[in-house]
């Protein structure tokens, strides 16, 4: 006798567990006034380009963030820095900045332990004394985190990916 066939739908693929960098690109896309892409549409368009997306949907490694940012029209080039002042200067110039940390961005001492995966967030506000980031959570929710004083940049070992704009060619 054959086992019964369960007619439950396959769960929808989402960027929740692994796609914080991808979610950051989508946030920047929407901030520029573009129509939001659903997780499903994003994965249909880009999922085949990244071999681990079947098991880690949305997870970007190495240069993939820069490659995908170019496809979204954000970057003529991308540079990375852990220097607060350099990130602040880029933010002041209006460049999009995605920040990454390997520890939970919680303002408490001792600093939370590092994990094996980076957490990506969009730099929303920054001045000489601190910064505010938009953070996508693994639950699918997101929020602006409370303003963090400058000291948390180094406490969290932040790396900033600065997306340089792609300007139209001169005529």
Structural description of this entry:
Helices cover 25% and strands 26% of the residues. The protein is built from five helices and seven strands, in the order αααβαβββββαβ. It has helices at 20-31, 39-46, 64-71, 84-92, 151-155; strands at residues 77-81, 96-103, 114-127, 130-136, 142-144, 148-149, 159-164. The protein starts with 19 loop residues before the first helix and ends in a 7-residue tail after the last strand. The mean pLDDT is 85.
Would you identify the regions where 5 or more consecutive residues have pLDDT less than 50?
none
Give the structural class. alpha+beta
Order of helices and strands: HHHEHEEEEEHE
Q: How many E-type strands?
A: 7
Largest sheet: 7 strands, antiparallel
Q: Over the alpha carbons, how many angstroms does the gyration radius reach?
A: 18 Å
Distance between the termini: 73 Å
Tally of helical segments:
5
As a percent range, the share of strand residues is 25-35%
Q: Please state the average pLDDT score.
A: 85
Shape: globular
Helix content: 10-25%
């Amino acid at each position: 006798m054959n086992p019964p066939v369960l007619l439950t739908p396959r769960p929808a693929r989402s960027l929740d567990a692994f796609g914080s960098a991808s979610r950051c690109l989508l946030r920047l896309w929407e901030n520029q006034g573009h129509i939001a892409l659903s997780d499903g549409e994003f994965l249909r368009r880009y999922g085949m380009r990244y071999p681990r997306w079947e098991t880690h949907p949305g997870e970007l490694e190495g240069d993939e963030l820069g490659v995908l940012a170019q496809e979204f029209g954000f970057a003529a080039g991308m540079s990375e820095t852990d220097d607060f002042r350099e990130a602040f200067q880029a933010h002041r110039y209006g460049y999009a900045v995605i920040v990454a940390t390997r520890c939970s961005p919680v303002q408490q001492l001792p600093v939370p332990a590092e994990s094996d995966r980076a957490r990506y967030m969009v730099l929303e506000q920054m001045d000489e004394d601190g910064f505010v980031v938009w953070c996508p959570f693994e639950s699918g929710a997101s929020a602006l985190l409370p303003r963090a004083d400058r000291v948390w940049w180094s406490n969290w070992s932040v790396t900033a990916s600065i997306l340089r704009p792609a300007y139209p060619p001169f005529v």
